[in-house]
Amino acid sequence: MPLAVQVWGPGALFTRPELKVERVSYPVMTPSAAVGVLESIFWKPEMRWRVQRIEVLRPIRQFTQRRNETTDLASLADAVSGRRRLDTAAHRVQRNAVCLRDVAYRVHAQIDLADHADKPVAAYRDQFRRRVTKGRCFTQPYLGTREFTAYFGEPDDQQPLGPDHDDDFGLMLHSVNHGTTPISFTWFDARMRGGVIEVPVHGIPARPAGEDAGEAELLSMAEGGV
Amino acid sequence: MLLQRLVQYAETHLGQARPFHREREFRWRLDLDLDGRPLSGELAPLVDEQRRDRGVVLTVPAVVRTVGVSANLAADDAQYVLGWGDETTKPARVAQCHAAFVDLIDKWATSDAGRDDPVAQAVAAFYRSGAAADLTRPEETTAKHGVVIAVNGDPACRSDSVVQFWTTEVTARKGGKTGSRHGLCLVCARHRELVDTVPGKVPGRLVPGASNDTALVSVNERVFGYGLTTGLEHTPICFGCGDAISTGLVAVLSSPHSIAPRGQNSRTSWWYIGEVDDDPIATLDQADPDEVTALLSTVHTGRHDANPPDVEVFCSLTVAGNIARIVVRDWIEMPLIELKRNIAAWFLDHEIAPAWPAGRRHHPLWKLALTTGRWQGERNRYAEFGVPGEARPHNIYPQLLGAALRNTPIPPAVLAHLIGRIRADGHLDDPRAALLRLALVHGKTTKETFMPDLNPGSADTAYHAGRAFALLEQIQHAAGSGERLNTTYGDRFFAGAITNPRAALVTGSRNAKAWQKKLRRAKPGLANYFDRKLDDVFALIPEGKGLPAAMTLHQQAQFLLGYHHQRGHRATTNTDTTAEPDTGAPTHTD
Q1: A199, B191, B246, B482: which has the fewest Cβ within 10 Å?
Q2: Do B219 and A21 touch (CB under 8 A)?
């Protein structure tokens, strides 16, 4: 049985990479956002979260907001150097966002242990369950962006959206790999069936290791089971 | 799925369009023969037959250029094609532009594709011969006038070798500083050559609020990109899809299925996927009575449900401009049958009894949006969209359209604004009453019933107060026998009665005695009718505590609905010839 946690909140913004300047949200939570929520509840260097399934519990509804932001942002290196000064007022930019309203998801995930893990996986699973029961987290989880706080708790009996809500969302972000330079992403063909999105184990890499990898093979890889 | 749908639109509606080609206007044509010699010493003017002051629009090879020098192939500005500047240009830059154009022609003529193409050779020979300097320049030419080169009468850019050469050229230009990348395209899910910036822009005139030509997918600031990067490094899109996104978007926004009322801050375009004969959005925006009846009967007879599931899909895109970026305000993709159900619900929810028998029970969406603006009594019409002092919310049209398409509630701010306008204008007509009912009912789950026609059984006191106010107004009008009053009862008390009807009703009841006395002398039957009606309505308003001192927005809307229903009821049921239309304010003009 995979671990499950229910998350909900009044708003969410899972930004699509193709429409990320004037932001438009994916209609549902992405696996990478789900990993973010899980890691803020419980994480150890010896483990890695693998999202298996996301159940959409409330109808997909949108709202838009427009706000002032800045284009003057210090990189980490600039910030560390301590010499960079920001001029927010001179770099004002107005950006629009199409967000999601009143969302709730049930995330099913597994824990994959690293080689140096010194406890059985059951120990980590129990720790996670205890933390969810008590509502404890390392940092407050959020739904896509920090403005949209995520509340979480134990899964209940709420049913996902029915078969009337089948939908195809196109290629969706599967995971972000910070170990490469520059960072790289993997993708998967996101489909919702009966309000449930099955997440494959591996996403389609942006650049396959072998250029001769067939397209059909890649697609079937992303559509494959968990 | 927006980008996928745009690419799909481009493929199905535009057919095999030439890649990286755009439409642009040309004022002049340079005619050459196959040896590259000009046919005459001057340019041939190109004039649109419909609009004599404009040039001819041609589809030519073109890519986006912003501030840099970047030549297009065989058809471009006069400063590129012939090196002709004007007072707005700098000579050094014009020379640079012309040199880039000549280099591109040379590159074309020596490429694999153009080496055996006589058209490419002819154009290259023209520039090598130096004949360009001998051409006579027409006085009216500016640096930005479009000039197309023609060989043997046909535009050189239509030559067979252009597509192959131009695709290679654009790929090299748009692949970024490090050359094009190979990777997974987000749109077509294939591993292809990826763009660094999307080729092609959407003309600013198609995007309300844009101050420049615009792009839908663009990461031109560090903070916009993942990990403080610019370009589409982390938004992988291939050349084919990138081009199709731009052409598809331009085609969608410039199609007849597009609405952008002046002064409103967005443009909504829509299209259907699958075999669709009718256009429910046209029904929504025109409210033709026959079409509305047909739509309602189609949805409610369950004919669609009896058949296999519908495969037709409705897509709607609402965009606005933010300088040179396109803002997606709304994106809807839903089964067509769901759209029809939502539009049917819209018509059912705003159906309203007309003030006069010839009036309409359903109203076009644009008319509902129009009625939120200022009523110009002296001109007997509403202020147009976008005119100064229209007093209309700048996003009312997309708000109403979104509520209609999605079957969601009308924002409360719309109701507050509408009631404010009715008070200020002293004007309530059929479309405004329809919008009032819509704001109370649409997309809401409520046990309260709001009937399209007069509802004597309503439990709402404010509703009956509105009815009483209408009756008192009618009594005064009937007693006056058509004589014109400087200020009627309605003129004096309507605005105040909407928020607090007590004072108006007390004063009206007192004055009604005198009006009835006068009316009874001329038309005793009508006076008796009003007596009975007034008694019936006042009986439904409990004495003393029945009406609050200050009514809520909901009660104000109920008051206005009761007022409108009572007026319409009289107009449609009383056949007494003396019951002429009211002439005092509030007016009834539809």
Answers
A1: B482
A2: yes
DSSP one-letter code for B373:
S
In angstroms, what separates the C-alpha of A207 from chain B's closest C-alpha?
A: 5
Size of interface A-B (CB pairs under 8 A): 103
Name the phi and psi angles at A60, rounded to 5: -80, 115
Mutation for testing the A interface, residue in B178, B191, B211, B238 having most A CBs under 10 Å:
B191
Give CA–CA dist A218/A198, Å, rounded. Answer: 17
**How many Cα neighbours within 13 Å face the side chain of B152?**
9
Say yes or no: B216 contacts chain A, CB-CB below 8 A.
Answer: yes
Q: Return the H-helix or E-strand segment holding B22.
A: strand B21-26
pLDDT tens digits along A66-121:
889 998 888 788 888 888 888 888 889 889 999 999 999 999 999 999 999 999 99
| Cα distances (Å, whole numbers) of residue A59 to A4, A100, A101, A166 | 20, 10, 9, 12
For residue A193, the cross-strand partners are A196
Task: Output b/e per residue, B178-203; b: 16+ Cβ within 10 A.
Answer: eebbebbbbbbbebbbbbbbbbbbbb
Please, what is the Cα angle at B577 between B587 and B429, to 5 degrees? 20
Structure tokens at B409: 């509630």
Q: Does B189 touch chain A (CB under 8 A)?
A: yes
3-state secondary structure at position B321: strand
Q: Is B452 helix (H, G, I), strand (E, B) or coil?
A: coil
**Cα dihedral value B195, B196, B202, B207, nearest 10:** 130
B320 contacts on A by Cβ (under 8 Å):
96
**Do residues A39 and A179 lie in contact, with contact meaning Cβ atoms separated by under 8 Å?**
no
Predicted confidence (pLDDT) per residue in B237-269, tens digit = 988 898 889 889 999 999 999 988 888 889 999
* For chain A, the helix, strand and coil percentages under 3-state DSSP, each to the nearest 5: 20, 40, 40
Backbone angles phi, psi at A82, to 5 degrees: 75, 5
Task: ipTM value, please give it.
Answer: 0.82
Residues paired with A196 in a beta bridge: A55, A193
Residue B137, sorted as left (phi over 0), alpha (psi -120 to 50) or beta, turns out to be: beta
Residue labelled with tokens 């763009």: B195
